[in-house]
Amino acid sequence: MGLEDVVSAVDHVEQLLADGETGPVQDSLSWQRSDADIQLGKACAMLGTCRQLRDGTNNNVSIVELSFNAIERSLQFYLVDMTAAESADYHEHGDVYQDIETRGVFSDEDIADRIDSFRAEHRSRIYYDIDKPGRDLALGMHDLAEIVHSYIVTFADAHSRCSCNRN
Q1: How far apart are CA 154 and CA 88, in angstroms?
Q2: Are 126 and 141 a contacting pair, CB within 8 Å?
Q3: Secondary structure E strands in the chain
Q4: Closest CA to 46 of 26, 27, 24, 69
Q5: 5, CA 20 to 30 Å: which among 38, 61, 94, 113?
Q6: Phi, psi at 22, each rounded to 5°
Q7: 3-state secondary structure at position 25
Q8: What percentage of the chain carries pLDDT values higher than 70?
Q9: Measured distance CA(122)–CA(26) in Å, rounded
């Protein structure tokens, strides 16, 4: 592989987007039309990938990163669905957690603040390989993401819109 291969690959993906020919849409996202349902579908897709990784690999960094993303997309789904917010309103990761905390979604348990603090302290350290997540942390993060997602789906009474059990 040389530089011309890199240039060719960049040209290819730029052209796919320019032509609007990106291929079939992912099944779990193809039916969704609303901003909220797109966020929910992304969370479901990330959790599905975590389940596959959890069963077949030792890719702890990917499981942790996807779990953080699934938690944030689940919370963002709730905010976009239940308020006048749009997903584009959340430019900073912490904005989602702060907004969820003020709405009392987790009662007065400070759960959103605790997850946000954990995210702020550890996510970039894991991403940049300063901290190396072990298997127990990866599985714990996936469990946390599944539980938060399920809680939000139940809290929003959105079981019929969640695609986790369709995959």
Answers
A1: 24
A2: no
A3: none
A4: 69
A5: 61
A6: -90, 0
A7: coil
A8: 95
A9: 30
The CA angle 123-127-133, to the nearest 5 degrees, is: 80
Q: List the structure tokens of 103.
A: 């709405």
Q: Is there a contact between 82 and 34 (Cβ–Cβ < 8 Å)?
A: no
Nearest to 51 by CA among 60, 41, 63, 40: 63
Give the residue from 28, 43, 40, 51 showing the smallest Cα distance to 142.
Answer: 51
* pLDDT in the model for residue 109: 83
Q: Summarize the chain as % helix, strand, coil (round to 5).
A: 75, 0, 25
Please answer whether residues 133 and 126 qualify as being in contact, where contact means their C-beta atoms are separated by less than 8 angstroms.
yes
Written as one letter, the residue type at 111 is I
Cα–Cα distances (Å) from 85 to 75, 76, 125, in that order, read 12, 9, 30
- What are the pLDDT digits (tens) for 36-53? 998 999 999 999 999 999
Q: Which residues of 34-50 are buried (b: 16+ CB within 10 A; e: fewer)?
A: ebbbbbbbbbbbbbbbb
